[in-house]
Amino acid sequence: MKCFFGLLNAALILLSITASSPSYAATTAEFMNAMTVCAAGSTITIDADLQGSMTSLFEKENTKGRATQQVVTEVGKLLPQQEIYKEYLRCVVSLLGN
Predict the structure, then answer these.
(1) What does the DSSP assignment read for 45-98?
(2) Does residue 14 surpass a pLDDT of 60?
(3) Mean pLDDT, rounded, for 49-65
(4) 20-42 as b/e, with b when 16 or more CB fall inside 10 Å?
(5) Poorest-confidence range of 37-46, 66-75, 79-88?
(6) Which residue has the higher pLDDT, 41 or 4?
């Protein structure tokens, strides 16, 4: 239960930051938090290597000044093309506010 409330707090913080600034570019920490929150309670599996690859790609694309949604689209190419992973990415994008 404690873990759930920690994830809920992370989601609320992300929503409050991104909702207050429509042109806000997400940080790597916020991206990682969104990945964790969206995976919680899901049946998807993202191992440490895949998470590391996704985070590295996010950092690389984010430094190019791309919008968060474009960056998450690139990250999504690393995931299987199943509906559950598409839902996961939609969750990440919605938490990051883009």
Answers:
(1) ---HHHHHHHHHHHHHHHHTT--HHHHHHHHHTTS---HHHHHHHHHHHHHHT-
(2) no
(3) 84
(4) eeeeeebeeebbbbbbbbbbeee
(5) 66-75
(6) 41
Tokens representing residue 52 in the block: 């590391």
CA distance 79 to 82: 8
Distances (CA, A) of 18 to 23, 41, 57, 95: 8, 23, 21, 8
Average pLDDT of span 46-54? 86
Spatial CA neighbour of 88 closest among 70, 80, 65, 21:
80
Six-digit token string for 76: 């999504």
Domain borders along the chain are 2-96
> Per the structure block, which two tokens stand in for 37?
């929150």
